[in-house]
Amino acid sequence: MKKIEAIIKPFKLDDVKKALNEINIEGMTITEVKGFGRQKGHSEFYRGAEYTVDFLPKIKIEVVTTEEMALKVVDAIMAAAKTGKIGDGKIFVSAVEDTVRIRTGERGKEAL
Amino acid sequence: MKKIEAIIKPFKLDDVKKALNEINIEGMTITEVKGFGRQKGHSEFYRGAEYTVDFLPKIKIEVVTTEEMALKVVDAIMAAAKTGKIGDGKIFVSAVEDTVRIRTGERGKEAL
Amino acid sequence: MKKIEAIIKPFKLDDVKKALNEINIEGMTITEVKGFGRQKGHSEFYRGAEYTVDFLPKIKIEVVTTEEMALKVVDAIMAAAKTGKIGDGKIFVSAVEDTVRIRTGERGKEAL
Amino acid sequence: MPKKILSMMLLYLFLPATVFAGTPAKVDSGDTAWVLVSAALVLLMTAPGLALFYSGMVRKKNVLGTIMQSFALLCIISIQWILWGYSVSFGPDKLGGLVGGLEWVGLKGVGLLPNPDYAATIPHQCFMVYQMMFAVITPALITGSFAERMKFSSFIVFSILWTTLVYDPIAHWVWATGGWLHDLGALDFAGGTVVHISSGVSALVAALVIGRRQGYMAETMAPHSLPLTLIGAGLLWFGWFGFNAGSALGANGLAVSAFVATNTAAAAAALSWSAVEWLHRGKPTILGLASGLVAGLVAVTPAAGFVGPISAMLLGAAAGVICYFSVSFMKPTLKYDDSLDAFGVHGVGGMWGAVATGLFASAAVNPAGANGLFFGGSALVGKQLIAIAASAAYSAVFTFILLKIIDAVMGLRVAQEDEVMGLDLSQHSESGYNM
Amino acid sequence: MPKKILSMMLLYLFLPATVFAGTPAKVDSGDTAWVLVSAALVLLMTAPGLALFYSGMVRKKNVLGTIMQSFALLCIISIQWILWGYSVSFGPDKLGGLVGGLEWVGLKGVGLLPNPDYAATIPHQCFMVYQMMFAVITPALITGSFAERMKFSSFIVFSILWTTLVYDPIAHWVWATGGWLHDLGALDFAGGTVVHISSGVSALVAALVIGRRQGYMAETMAPHSLPLTLIGAGLLWFGWFGFNAGSALGANGLAVSAFVATNTAAAAAALSWSAVEWLHRGKPTILGLASGLVAGLVAVTPAAGFVGPISAMLLGAAAGVICYFSVSFMKPTLKYDDSLDAFGVHGVGGMWGAVATGLFASAAVNPAGANGLFFGGSALVGKQLIAIAASAAYSAVFTFILLKIIDAVMGLRVAQEDEVMGLDLSQHSESGYNM
Amino acid sequence: MPKKILSMMLLYLFLPATVFAGTPAKVDSGDTAWVLVSAALVLLMTAPGLALFYSGMVRKKNVLGTIMQSFALLCIISIQWILWGYSVSFGPDKLGGLVGGLEWVGLKGVGLLPNPDYAATIPHQCFMVYQMMFAVITPALITGSFAERMKFSSFIVFSILWTTLVYDPIAHWVWATGGWLHDLGALDFAGGTVVHISSGVSALVAALVIGRRQGYMAETMAPHSLPLTLIGAGLLWFGWFGFNAGSALGANGLAVSAFVATNTAAAAAALSWSAVEWLHRGKPTILGLASGLVAGLVAVTPAAGFVGPISAMLLGAAAGVICYFSVSFMKPTLKYDDSLDAFGVHGVGGMWGAVATGLFASAAVNPAGANGLFFGGSALVGKQLIAIAASAAYSAVFTFILLKIIDAVMGLRVAQEDEVMGLDLSQHSESGYNM
Ligand SMILES: Nc1ncnc2c1ncn2[C@@H]1O[C@H](COP(=O)(O)OP(=O)(O)O)[C@@H](O)[C@H]1O
Ligand SMILES: Nc1ncnc2c1ncn2[C@@H]1O[C@H](COP(=O)(O)OP(=O)(O)O)[C@@H](O)[C@H]1O
Ligand SMILES: Nc1ncnc2c1ncn2[C@@H]1O[C@H](COP(=O)(O)OP(=O)(O)O)[C@@H](O)[C@H]1O
Question: Which CATH architecture has domain F28-413?
Answer without folding.
Answer: Orthogonal Bundle (1.10)
